[in-house]
Amino acid sequence: MRNRLKILRAERNWSQADLADRLSVSRQTVNAIETEKYDPSLPLAFKIADLFALRIEDIFAPA
Amino acid sequence: MRNRLKILRAERNWSQADLADRLSVSRQTVNAIETEKYDPSLPLAFKIADLFALRIEDIFAPA
DNA sequence: TCATTATGTAAAATAAACTTGACACAATGT
DNA sequence: ACATTGTGTCAAGTTTATTTTACATAATGA
Fold first, then answer.
1. Tens-digit pLDDT profile for residues A21-53
2. Which SMART domains does the UniProt record give (chains A, B) (predicted)?
3. Is position A44 within any domain?
4. Residue A1 in contact with residue A39, Cβ under 8 Å?
5. Residue A18 domain boundaries
6. Whole-model pTM?
7. Residue among B37, B42, B44, B50 with most chain A CBs within 10 A, to mutate
């Protein structure tokens, strides 16, 4: 699942660890999502969208 | 995760099995999501939103 | 040069999503 | 009375998401 996490992070100058902290997940989870190793769960996708004040569809796109 | 699947199904007069077929998942998966036994994966949430031509946030809401 | 930070990745474990197969029950139609 | 349909649920198994711990490497700063 393609996503704009890296860009959204860069805009805020956040490291993967920073983002992980704000999402209460591990740094490896953030890394795995960014590098498309796996997709976030729906609850996590909601958390991410919430954090960036965007809609899920504005951050993630299938395949 | 609260969701409007049952309503959206009812509007179309689809059974859980009908919806499952359209989503290429099992009937039990649809039932489990409707009865909030678990949340769909993000890819499945996208499929559902796509099928109903709605946004994920218009179908699902955290907790 | 040394310590720190950011990122990528791996392995092993647990949790969550999803499958198939099955059974029960209520409602509907023949 | 019988068969069918829709829904809820359970058990056992597979796949996917997430965790912790750990290691490698590149870049930065003292």
1. 999 999 999 999 999 999 999 999 999 999 999
2. HTH_XRE
3. yes
4. yes
5. 2-54
6. 0.95
7. B42
